[in-house]
Amino acid sequence: MSIHHAFTTPLTTAIVRLLVSAGIALTALAAHAGVEINRASLAELETVKGIGPSLSTRILQARQQSVFANWDDLRQRVRGIGTAKAARLSSEGLTVGGAAYAATDSDHAAAQPKKRETSSLRASVSDAPRSAGSRADATSNSR
To answer: Is residue 58 one of the residues assigned to a domain?
Structure first.
């Protein structure tokens, strides 16, 4: 039996296919695995979509002082990471202490634009006294 013949048996072919499939699956799994912010290097941080050189540098500088306790700690200490950015980074695989970002009710309230009180603003403008140099006084004085 030649060596070539030993590697072309149906059992060997099935084992090779299984090993190749397992390798591909593990590679895909590793690609989707999260990047832990408290352990990641500069290069690893930059593999997360949305983290470039300047943000990764700010993250590492803040982490030198102490590890990030949670997402709120990260958001407070690193300029450029707010509620929306934290949610995007988390969806791209970034974790803090092994946890994905979960926005709280106060985060949602802070992210909502504040509604202006237009009716009270109009009332205060219409109630305001007009100065002597106002347009209405200028037209009444010219008659």
So the answer is: yes
